[in-house]
Each structure stands twice: as structure tokens, then as C-alpha cells.
Design goal:
The protein has a seven-stranded mixed sheet, sandwiched between helices. The chain has helices at residues 2-5, 17-25, 28-31, 34-37, 47-63, 92-104, 134-143, 159-171, 189-206, 226-238, 245-248, 264-269, 365-372, 377-383, 397-447, and strands at residues 80-85, 115-118, 124-129, 146-152, 175-181, 213-215, 219-220, 223-224, 252-260, 277-284, 293-296, 300-303, 332-333, 385-387, 394-396. The protein is elongated. The chain has 15 helices and 15 strands. Residues 399-409 have a biased composition (Basic and acidic residues).
């Protein structure tokens, strides 16, 4: 009885179609990590290690916390000022031209003064090059929202970079990004990587940990590589600017155009007379009173006579549905460089030459003069007169034609006379020949 109750145990199949189906159902368990399959084995082993990890995460969170600052910029903010700073012969002008070309697809040959471009739906950028002058660095350090520090990879950080750092510490530190240039002077790839690491560490020591440093490897046809410039422009377009309290509470203007409207008669009488100057630019900071005193860098304090609100010469695109800029919406405004049309006071009338329209060929001046003439050319030739000698009689075209006609008639008469003489001579010869033939016949008859 006991032997009949004993049953054979179940043996699961490890191969075959059924075993393969079961393995396929539980396949996700094999993809799990060891910590996910057995979390108890990876529990906290060291209290000190766990405390360090907790403190690290807390530090990262608290670094992002800051006191909120009031942004006084209007609904349509003025362009962001991007200053290009660096020692001489490092490639500042070339970088400025490449940045403008990336945003507007236009080439600038002669760059003078600020250049304003549209970088996005709600962002405009004003590029300005900083000279190697301490006064220029002080002025640009006060107004720049973003500074691009050009560094020569062969020379390293030079005196101009450290001077600009010290100036910004006193006037208000803007956002800074480094641009490493002249990397093509290193032929070995290992030396290039080593130099990049050295300069990046030094740049982070001077500014802060994690400061951005971009690399421009080489020049091709006088321009930097398009993908490297595009990468730099992309970071500039999305970068968030920190509003500085001093700038937000004081009005200031970066003049991008200047006109001398002094009476020319006063200048003619006294070249050293007081001038009346009109300055144009975007208002930044707070509102400015119309009769307040202003300070012009390098000149002194002056009183404002009149202040007028003008339409925006470089507006942002108004199409909200589009996420990218159209080619026609890529606007550039650089009046000192001769780009952006001509603006008249208080009217904002632009004179832009249409690039898409083909210029018509100008008609020839000779053909136009002939078309305007009322008389034909033959009559004008007959009426025209010319004097060969001074004080002599004038010969007209009709006299010349009359004389020419008379000479032609005389020559025709002479030719007729010659032909008649020639014909008479030929007749005389023929008569003589006939006489000689008759004589010969008579002689022959006599002989017979």
C-alpha cells in the first residue's frame, strides 16, 4: 500500500520548446543589475561614506540657490552687448566677422563700431571689439553683458586678460567665456591635448570652476571653421545673463551712431566753436529723464537738450508660431560699418538696395541723344559748320556736298570725253585697215 502511494517527482525541462518559452518570459530578470536583483546585498555598509554622499548632494543643491534679483528690462529687451577682448594679433576682428556671418549670412569687410544682429525670436546681440587700451577696457567692462576672452594657445594668458579681470572685479563682473586660438601651431595631437588641459585649468582658477572654454583649431580661407563658430554662437544664443544691480538701477546708452548737426556757417566762421551732436542707441537700465546730465566717456559731463523715442532699426521677428528665423528676418544693423541702410531723423526712413532685384542696364548716352534729337542725322550733318583756320570762313556740310557734287560731275564729263576720243581712234584704225586690205587686193589683181 505504501509503495503505491509513492509518486514520481516533477522534473522541469531545461531544453526543448517549452523550456525556451519559459526562458523568454523571464528574460527581463537577466537584464537587471546585481543591485536590482539583490538590493539587500548593497545596503549601507559604511556610515561615513553615506554621510559624505549626503553632504555632496546637499552642496550641489545649495550652490544653485541664489537671491532672486529684479529684472528691470522691458518686454522687448535691448540687445545683449557681447565684447571681444584679447591681446593684439590674436584674431578678434576675424572672430567678429565670423560671428556676424553665422547669424546673418553676410560678410563684413570693414568692421567699425558696434554691430547688432538678430540671434533669435526674442534675442538680439550687439558685438563690439575691445581695443588694447586701458580706458577702452574700463568703458567696455561697465556695459558688457558677455565677454569673449581670446587667448593665444602658444602665448597663454597675457597681460590684457588679467587687466580685464581686475577691471571687471571693480566695475561688475559680466559673464565670461574663453576662446582658445592658434591651436594649429601645434603639430602633435598629444601636445594639443596637453595644452588645452593646462589652459582650461588656469582659466577655471582665474574665473570659477566649470568656466566655458571654446577651441578654434585653424583658419580656412581667412575664416574659422564653420562648425566651431556655430557651436560658439549656439552657446551665446541660449546663455542666461545675470542682471547686475548697479546697471539695472542706472540708465546708460551705448551709442551706435553719431551725427554732427552743428550749423555749417558757424563751423566756417569758427572751426573751434561748440558743436551740437546727436547720438543714437538703445536705452539700457532704467528710464532716463530728458533734461538730466549725462557723462560721455572721455569728454565729460553734458546736459541733454532733447531726447526722442525712435522706431527700432533692428526689430525682433514678430511671428510667434515659427521656431526658427527666416532668411528675410536675419537683420543686421551696423551704421558705422555702412550696413543697415540710411536712417533719417524722426522718420526712420530706410534706403536699402534690394539684393534680389536685378539691376537694369543703363541705355547708352549716344543712343539716348540720337533718340531725343528732332532732326535726322543727314540734316544735322548738312547744317554743321567747321572753321579750318582761326578767323577764316566757316565751311558748312551743304557747301562741302555741293562742291563734292560739282567735282563728281566734272570727273564724269572727263570720263565721257576720254571714251569718245577712244572710240574715234578705234574707228580711224579700222578705216585704215580696210584701205590697206583694198590696196592688197588691187595689187594681186594687177599681178594676175
Amino acid at each position: 500500500m505504501e509503495e503505491s502511494d509513492m509518486k514520481k517527482g516533477h522534473r522541469a525541462r531545461h531544453s526543448g520548446p517549452k523550456a525556451e518559452k519559459k526562458k523568454a518570459k523571464n528574460k527581463h530578470e537577466q537584464n537587471l543589475t546585481a543591485r536590482q536583483r539583490n538590493p539587500r546585498a548593497f545596503a549601507i555598509q559604511s556610515v561615513n561614506k553615506a554621510a559624505k554622499a549626503f553632504r555632496r548632494t546637499a552642496d550641489i543643491k545649495t550652490k544653485k540657490q541664489h537671491i532672486p534679483k529684479v529684472d528691470r528690462s522691458p518686454t522687448e529687451p535691448p540687445p545683449i552687448v557681447v565684447a571681444i577682448v584679447g591681446p593684439p594679433k590674436v584674431g578678434k576682428s576675424t572672430l567678429l566677422r565670423c560671428l556676424v556671418k553665422n547669424f546673418t549670412k553676410q560678410k563684413l569687410t570693414n568692421v567699425q563700431g558696434p554691430v547688432t544682429v538678430v540671434a533669435g525670436k526674442n534675442r538680439r546681440l550687439t558685438f563690439i571689439e575691445c581695443n588694447n587700451d586701458i580706458n577702452c577696457m574700463i568703458d567696455i567692462g561697465k556695459i558688457a553683458d558677455l565677454a569673449l576672452l581670446m587667448v593665444d594657445a602658444k602665448q597663454g594668458f597675457e597681460m590684457e586678460i588679467f587687466e580685464f579681470f581686475n577691471i571687471c572685479q571693480a566695475t561688475g563682473f559680466p559673464r565670461c567665456m574663453g576662446v582658445l586660438n592658434h591651436l594649429d601651431l601645434y603639430k602633435d595631437g598629444k601636445a594639443v591635448r596637453k595644452r588645452k588641459k593646462q589652459l582650461k585649468n588656469r582659466f577655471e582658477i582665474e574665473l570659477y570652476k566649470g568656466a566655458r572654454l571654446f577651441y578654434l583649431s585653424m583658419l580656412v580661407n581667412g575664416e574659422y571653421l564653420a562648425n566651431e563658430v556655430h557651436n560658439l554662437c549656439r552657446f551665446i544664443s541660449v546663455m542666461k545673463m545675470i542682471p547686475l544691480i548697479w546697471r539695472a538701477s542706472h540708465p546708460y546708452v551705448l551709442a551706435d551712431r553719431m551725427e554732427d548737426i552743428t550749423n555749417p556757417e558757424n563751423i566756417r566762421q569758427n572751426p573751434k566753436c561748440d558743436r551740437t551732436v546727436s547720438l543714437y542707441g538703445y536705452m539700457r537700465g532704467t528710464h532716463m529723464k530728458s533734461k538730466s546730465m549725462v557723462h560721455i566717456a572721455g569728454c565729460g559731463d553734458y546736459a541733454i537738450k532733447d531726447m526722442t523715442f525712435l522706431p527700432d532699426p533692428c526689430p525682433t521677428p514678430q511671428m510667434e508660431k515659427r521656431r526658427s528665423l527666416n532668411k528675410r528676418e536675419r537683420v543686421i544693423y551696423a551704421p558705422m560699418s555702412g550696413v543697415g541702410g540710411i536712417v533719417y531723423d524722426k522718420d526712420a526712413v530706410y534706403i536699402d538696395m534690394g539684393t534680389q532685384k536685378a539691376e537694369e542696364d543703363k541705355p547708352s548716352e549716344l543712343v539716348a541723344a540720337l533718340m531725343e534729337s528732332l532732326k535726322p542725322v543727314d540734316e544735322k550733318m548738312r547744317e554743321s559748320q567747321i572753321s579750318i583756320f582761326k578767323g577764316g570762313p566757316a565751311i558748312s556740310g551743304s557747301d562741302f556736298e555741293r562742291k563734292r557734287h560739282i567735282e563728281k560731275n566734272e570727273s564724269d564729263d572727263d570720263e565721257d570725253d576720254e571714251e569718245e576720243d577712244r572710240d574715234s581712234g578705234m574707228e580711224a584704225e579700222s578705216s585704215e585697215d580696210e584701205d590697206s586690205d583694198d590696196n592688197k587686193e588691187d595689187i594681186e589683181d594687177d599681178s594676175e
